[in-house]
Amino acid sequence: MSADTPISRRLNNVKHIILVLSGKGGVGKSSVSTQLALSLYASAPTARVGILDVDLTGPSIPRMLGVDGHPVHQSTDGWVPGDSVVWRGPKKNAMIRQFLSDVRWGELDYLVIDTPPGTSDEHLSLLEHLAPVHDRLSSVVVTTPQAVALADAIKGVSFTRAVNLPVLGVIENMSGYACPCCGEITNVFSKGGGKSMAEREKVHFLGSLPIDTQLVELLDSAQPQPQPTTTSDSRPLESSYSGQEQVSATDVTPVTQLNTLSGTGSETNGHTTSTHAPTRTFQVLERYRQTPTWAAFKPMAEYIIEKLR
């Protein structure tokens, strides 16, 4: 039976938590995390997907999804963060704990967590905090075809075994180049290294993703989404990075409207939240569906969904 902790209570209505790992930096882990979240969200009209970036020293997810620049809102029921903070040592651990225990995650089918490269303090802290919900954890390992990246990916798989973290599969990113004119894939690096590594390590190979200039342009140019509007019967949200300003619970937008993809979260802990805020629609999703990598990632997402059922 899971321990009753602040984190377990916050994540009580999150069905599946997927950690995206990589043995080294520069393999496109954050872009894969973004594609995974978007693909899961597109899998069904009612899918509720959240995404958390715990790469505290180099967060990329807010920029890629066009939510960079949102303020931090405080309420009596917790924090709703917009930006990550660059800290070291114990403060990293405290920030990760705060993301998990103080944020109102609401009801989610999937929570995708983009982790830093390697197996650092953040990974150990994250798994320690998520221990009460370990039965809902799984992971995806990202690599590229180069030998150096594959060697580090093997270490990442070894790490998952050491901490008893299930691996849904390996994704070989930057596997070839997708021509923006005809869509033909041309090999740039070596080919098939990710699949061979997965077979040797006896983990599932999810598939390969090409270098896609359309995807790069999309993630680089994602525009910030407008903040939820207020009505005459609700005061504007107060925001403060210092956490000193007080706001009533009825004026707080749930986190599911700020940094989850569906923007249709439900209420938690008995508080009432204004229902006047419009449903958030991410234009980035429609543009993502037009990229060559959408067709390549779709079967991977379908496999993950089926595996987690």
From TrEMBL:
It comes from the Eukaryota. PROSITE patterns: MRP. One of its GO terms (cellular component) is cytosol. HAMAP family: Mrp_NBP35. Keywords: ATP-binding, Iron, Iron-sulfur, Metal-binding, Nucleotide-binding. It comes from Rhizoctonia solani. It holds the Pfam family ParA. Residues 222-281 are annotated as: Disordered. This is Cytosolic Fe-S cluster assembly factor cfd1.
